[in-house]
């Protein structure tokens, strides 16, 4: 790249950085100005709204004063004459039939003496505000009387002969003041409650299209682009007579013309600045081209000398820089000739040295691997055959290749030593880990229930086959009391040691909870809350837990995201047990589970299992599926013993897999009810 080009690029880069800096400062200044304008808008609108509310409450106070000084009103109020009160109010000039007007009289005993509503129930003031008004305090401000209705009220306390104090409450719809507020700021205004409901709006269609997200309790000022037009959105919180927030006034001011004018000015300024920069860069480049022409001529001469052409001369002579360059060229030519002679002498010495180095390299090659040695010697021989090859470069290549091979050989030997050492350590650790996993497997199988004690009313049998050394499935059955048997089958998400630990915790908590929480739904809910509190590993467990009354055969159960069990009737009919609609345990704290009931007839059987049965895959990646389970159960499961039923299911799954590795833990639990009149087990 030419020097003048580099100088031009540097100057252009400087101009660009300067323009970007000015642009960034302008953007920052605009943002600060927008923030300040927003604060001023919030402050101004807050003051305007307070003045409007104060003006309205002052008018309401003057009207209440006229009502209080009206003799007909006083007389009618003393006798609780509602028609008389209404007539007296109309004489004062108040249209109580106006839906935007609210008037109410409340006695000291909090009885509504008069109301413009259809009932006698008080609905304008709450209990706290009424207590303050009865003490003589004048309440003025806003009051929300329904979910989507806000009014401006003022109160006046009067003394009634023989009845004590009474509170006069007069109010007007806040939408009237809001319209005046909208005219004052020349913007569409909407009054919303704390729940976001629209009380009134001067342009409801604009509000619906804007879809503004507002936090009513916090003042907000922001920009909005809607249908190609710019709006300033300002939200100010408004308070009721008790001082608490009741909603917010949101104004949408159309600033499209101002924004477009500002954008036009900014674009014009940017275009002018870019034009000035381009003119400056082009002028600088032309000036540098004219100034650097003599220097470029001198550079061409020097390039010719570098190629060995000493016949060229410099066309410019004199005492300036170019003349001094011409004198230097003459001196350079003599130096080049002397340098050529010196180079021939060094070349003869170098060749003798290369012969000695080659001999040493051949001796060094004998110390490396036989295969590498042959390759190094071949490389040396190849260089000797090529007489045009630079001997020093050839020796350097051989030396580099030889050094690389020696380093690689040393690295391989070091790596082999390290790998052997690590292999011994890993083998020792693996042996210890396998021993610990085998112990964990034995411990896990030991905590599962053993054979159920003989009982003429019921027979239970469970079986679990982990996919790894330890698994996440578990089953359990236990006597809750002399006539109630609890049973459960569960599947923890994941496999291996984490799932096994979570399985042990879940089983322990479930069994301990079931002893004092007899309702299966309540028991699972407590278990879910306990496991979901500190579940940092995000594990969960599907559970089917139920209790069976051995006297009646009634089964109450909860299905928390588990596979639907099967009910096998004595006649051989196979049906699925309906789900209770619960999610897996330890997913969401506070989830409420539902429980269902069913009744077992003598000879009926319940078969429970985990998804390791239905999701077992054969060597063709085909799942076992629920259809095969149902077909197997219909083949005489009602006549098999509970232990035989589990064994037949597991055997059928293994035959289906055809040697494929077990994909998940497999667990089965079979319960058969014989009736509640047999001999009972004593505890």
UniProtKB/TrEMBL annotation:
Residues spanning the membrane: 6-28, 269-292
Which keywords does this Swiss-Prot/TrEMBL entry list?
Hydrolase, Membrane, Transmembrane, Transmembrane helix
Q: Which superkingdom is the protein from?
A: Bacteria
Q: Where is the HAMP domain?
A: 289-341
Q: Which InterPro entries match?
A: Bact_Sigma-Reg (IPR052016), HAMP_dom (IPR003660), PPM-type-like_dom_sf (IPR036457), PPM-type_phosphatase-like_dom (IPR001932)
Write the protein's name: SpoIIE family protein phosphatase
């Amino acid at each position: 790249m030419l020097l003048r080009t580099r100088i031009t690029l540097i100057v252009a880069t400087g101009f660009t950085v300067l323009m970007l800096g000015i642009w960034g400062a302008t953007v920052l200044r605009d943002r600060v100005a927008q923030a300040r304008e927003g604060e001023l808008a919030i402050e101004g609108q807050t003051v305007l709204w307070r003045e409007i509310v104060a003006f309205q409450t002052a008018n309401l106070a003057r009207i209440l004063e006229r009502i209080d000084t009206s003799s007909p009103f006083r007389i009618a109020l003393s006798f609780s004459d509602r028609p008389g009160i209404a007539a007296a109010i109309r004489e004062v000039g108040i249209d109580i039939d106006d839906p935007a007007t609210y008037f109410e009289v409340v006695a000291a005993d909090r009885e509504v003496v008069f109301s413009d509503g259809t009932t006698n129930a008080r609905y304008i003031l709450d209990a706290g505000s009424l207590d303050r008004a009865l003490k003589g305090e004048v309440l003025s401000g806003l009051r929300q009387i329904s979910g989507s209705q806000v009014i401006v009220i003022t109160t006046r306390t009067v003394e009634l002969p023989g009845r004590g104090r009474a509170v006069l409450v007069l109010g007007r719809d806040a939408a009237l003041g809001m319209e005046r507020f909208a005219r004052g700021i020349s913007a569409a205004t909407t009054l919303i409650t704390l729940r976001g409901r629209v009380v009134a709006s001067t342009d409801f269609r604009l509000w619906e299209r804007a879809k503004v997200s507002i936090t009513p309790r916090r003042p907000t000022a922001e920009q909005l682009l809607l249908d190609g037009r710019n709006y300033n959105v300002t939200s100010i919180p408004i308070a009721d007579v008790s001082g608490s927030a009741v909603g917010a006034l949101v104004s949408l001011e159309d600033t499209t013309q101002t924004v477009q004018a500002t954008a036009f000015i900014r674009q014009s300024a940017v275009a002018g600045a870019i034009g000035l920069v381009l003119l400056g860069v082009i002028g600088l480049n032309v000036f540098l081209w004219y100034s650097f022409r003599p220097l470029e001529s001198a550079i061409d001469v020097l390039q010719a000398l570098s190629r060995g052409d000493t016949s060229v001369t410099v066309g410019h002579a004199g005492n300036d820089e170019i003349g001094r360059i011409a004198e230097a060229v003459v001196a350079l030519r003599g130096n080049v000739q002397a340098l050529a002679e010196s180079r021939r002498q060094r070349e003869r010495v170098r060749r003798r040295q290369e012969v000695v180095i080659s001999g040493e390299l051949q001796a060094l090659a004998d110390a490396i691997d036989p295969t590498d040695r042959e390759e190094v010697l071949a490389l040396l021989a190849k260089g000797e055959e090529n007489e045009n090859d630079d001997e020093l470069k050839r020796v350097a290549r051989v030396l580099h290749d030889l050094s690389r091979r020696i380093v690689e050989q040393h690295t391989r030997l070091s790596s082999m030593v390290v790998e052997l050492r690590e292999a011994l350590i890993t083998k020792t650790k693996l042996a210890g880990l396998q021993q610990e996993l085998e112990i964990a497997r034995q411990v896990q199988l030991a905590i599962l229930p053993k054979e159920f004690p003989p009982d003429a009313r019921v027979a239970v049998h469970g079986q679990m086959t982990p996919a790894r050394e330890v698994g996440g499935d578990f089953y359990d059955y236990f006597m809750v009391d002399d006539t109630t048997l609890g049973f459960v089958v569960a599947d923890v998400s994941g496999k291996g040691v984490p799932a096994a630990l979570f399985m042990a915790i879940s089983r322990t908590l479930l069994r301990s909870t079931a002893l004092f929480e007899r309702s299966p739904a309540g028991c699972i809910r407590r278990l879910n809350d306990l496991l979901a509190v500190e579940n940092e590993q995000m594990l969960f467990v599907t559970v089917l837990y139920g209790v069976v009354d051995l006297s009646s055969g009634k089964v109450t159960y909860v299905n928390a995201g588990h596979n639907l069990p099967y009910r096998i009737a004595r006649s051989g009919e196979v049906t699925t047990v309906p789900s209770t609609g619960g999610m897996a345990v330890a997913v969401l704290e506070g989830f409420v589970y539902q429980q269902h009931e069913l009744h077992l007839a003598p000879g009926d059987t319940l078969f429970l299992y985990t998804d390791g049965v239905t999701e077992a895959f054969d060597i063709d990646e085909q799942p076992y599926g629920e259809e095969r389970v149902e077909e197997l159960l219909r083949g005489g499961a009602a006549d098999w013993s509970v232990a035989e039923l589990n064994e037949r299911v597991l055997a059928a799954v293994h035959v289906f897999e055809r040697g494929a590795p077990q994909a998940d833990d497999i667990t089965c639990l079979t319960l058969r009810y014989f009736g509640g009149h047999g001999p009972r087990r004593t505890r």
